[in-house]
Amino acid sequence: MRPKLIFSIVIIFCLFIRCKESNVRKKDVSKWFNKEIVLPNDSLIVNNQKIPNPLIKKIKILSLINGDCCVCYDELREWKKFMKEVDTGKVGFIFNIYTFNDLIAFEDMNRNTLNFKYPYFKDVGAKIMEINDFSDDKIYKTVLLDEFNKVILIGNPNVHPDIRKLYLNEIKKRTNN
Fold first, then answer.
1. Is the pTM of this model over 0.85?
2. 90 CB contacts (<8 Å, ≥6 apart)?
3. Pairing of strands 91-99, 142-145
4. What is the domain partition of the chain in residue ranges?
C-alpha cells in the first residue's frame, strides 16, 4: 500500500474513534441534566464559623474530591482561585471529601500546607458518590446545582476553560436576578 493511503486510513480511524468518544461524553452529560442530587447532610467540617452552610444557597457547586489522593488536594487550590471569581455569598460550594480510609492525611495536609478554610463534608466510604451514581471519571465529579439540587451543568470548571466559562455565565445569569 502507498504511504498516503495508509496515512489517510489512520486519520479516518482516529477521527472515527474521536467522534465516537465525543458522542459517549454527550450522552453521559445529557443523562445528568436536571437530575436531582442527594447532598450530604452530616459530617460538615467547618473551619471558619463566618461561612454559612453551603447547602442553603440557591445555587451550589458540588465537587467530589478523593481524600485518599495527595495529588487531588491540589484541586482545592484551584477551587480557591475559582471562588475569587464568584460571589460566595450567593453561591454555595459543597466540597465532599470522600475516602475509603480516614481523612487524617487530608486534615494534616489542610492544616499544615493547604490552609483551606471553606467548610467541607467528610464522606467515609464515598456514600454520596454511590447514592448519586457518580462516575469514577474525574470530569463528572463536579456539578452546578439549582435551588432544588437539580443538575444545571456537569464538569469541572478548573479543568477546561470552556467549562469554566459556562459555569461563570450560568452563575452570573442565576445570581443577578
1. no
2. 57, 58, 59, 175
3. unpaired
4. 1-32, 35-175
Contact 131, 124 (CB under 8 A): no
Cα(175)–Cα(91) distance, rounded to whole angstroms? 8
| Fold held by 35-175 | Glutaredoxin (3.40.30)
Nearest to 29 by CA among 169, 162, 142: 142
Write out the E strands in the chain. 44-45, 59-66, 91-99, 120-124, 142-145, 151-154
How many Å apart are CA 34 and CA 149, to the nearest integer? 9
Q: Per residue in 11-31, pLDDT tens?
A: 555 445 454 444 444 445 677
Nearest CA-CA partner of 121 in 56, 63, 68:
63
Q: What is the pLDDT of residues 44-82, one digit of tens each?
A: 776 655 677 788 899 999 999 988 887 777 888 899 999
Residue 28, C-alpha cell as written in the block: 453521559
pLDDT at 14: 47
